[in-house]
Amino acid sequence: MRVLMLSWEYPPEIVGGIAPHVHDLSLALTEKGQEVTVLTRSNAPAESREQRDGIKICRVGRSAPEPPDFVSWVMQLNLQLMEKAVSMVEDGEDFDLIHAHDWLVAYAGKGLKHAFRKPLVATVHATEWGRNNGLHNELQRYISNVEWWLAFEAWRVICCSRYMRGELQRIFQLPLNKLRVIPNGVYPEPFRRQAGDVRAIRRKYAADDEQVVFYVGRLVFEKGLDLLLAAAPRILAHNEKVKFIIAGKGPYAEHLHHRAREMGLYHKFYFTGYVDDLTRNALFSTADVAVFPSLYEPFGIVALEAMAAGTPVVVTDTGGLGEVVQHGKNGLKAFPNNPESLADNILWVLNHPEQAAAMREQAQRDLETTYNWGKIAAETIDVYQEILWEYKRSDWHRQVATAGRGLPSDHRLRSVPAAALAYSRYTPTGGEADQLPPVFNGQKEGYQ
To answer: Residue 65: what pLDDT?
Structure first.
């Protein structure tokens, strides 16, 4: 099976969780014998192509002219992705389906779907509604509409947790038979890899007699770091020998620095900024507990990464984190947005190292049985095969087969502009368009 994977980020261009997800999924699919081409962006001016670990990677260069805002940048990126995909087909490459990741590649996914009459599958990693606890301005409403649009155009929508499935049903009124839940995964080896003296690395951030509470991730509001700051006085009242190490960068960093100073806790918090993988691994391996107090988390792959590194985890019982962590078995869950509950669970791990070690061992077993990329890839292939089985029996595919008879070899390319402008009456699931909620003036029916 030949898969064209569309993603706005891919290692080493990493912004959030989509880049590692697309990389690991592509690698696992390739190991299962699938042909995967990742079409993504580069910060370099020129495009590039490479093949790594069996994955074909094509990167488009920076846009020119420089876009005035983020939405314009997204539009230019999508035009570049479509242009590159057309040139790849011109050069003789082909694919069986398109897999788009999140709204930032929705335009390219839809355009290529209709241009080449290939089925589109979408993975929705998060929603604008969820990230902001509602829609509060025109930009957020626009992004949410594009997310709905991508889900409408997709033959199937993959989400990483039962929580996200419920969110997509509630916000976008998606039919249940269009949604598939496939969890995220982790390759444990990169998080166990060590180099140099890990204790020496730890000493850069904490004293030998201090217990370490470690967070790594983006510094944004929805990650709940205000909650960790609010929990810190309760923790320190019971154990003054605790150091909070916060690794990562993001727009919320200045607020967190200011808040820590305001509370008189700045000497107990070490904001490292960006750390490389080996420093992250050293801090994971020497931390007493990894904490992820998110307010919104569709899955929470960082919890799996902590488990892979062998670090006991405490999370808030929200979103996908509440599904990954089983309280008292492979980690602990605090009540959402409750600093007292968060502090109590962190203190329990710090004060019960033997029980924490047992939870850590269970977490390792869970990684092998549930969050194994080989298993996840097999489930993804099942979805692909389900889509292709339906696609080959649909009127959409029969129209393509009929149109191709007697045409010259380059007919598909010569018909691209017209096909891209045509709107198919058939929905991605093969039914009539009016079976899905209609759009009125850009807003979804029943959606406030």
So the answer is: 83
Mean pLDDT of the region 187-209:
89
d(CA 301, CA 27): 17
Q: Which two tokens stand for residue 16?
A: 């959030």
Alpha carbon distance 65, 54 (integer Å): 34
- At residue 402, the pLDDT reads 62
| DSSP secondary structure, 84-142, as one string | HHHHHHHTT---SEEEEESGGGHHHHHHHHHHHT--EEEE----HHHHHTS--SHHHHH
CA–CA distance, 309 with 249 (Å, rounded to integer): 21
Rg of the chain taking only CA atoms, in angstroms: 23
Cα within 13 Å of Cα(351), Cβ side? 11
**Structural domains of the chain, with CATH:** 2-185+373-442 (3.40.50.2000), 196-369 (3.40.50.2000)
Q: What is the pLDDT of residue 64?
A: 72
CA distance 353 to 355: 6
Whether 26 has a pLDDT exceeding 90, the answer reads: yes
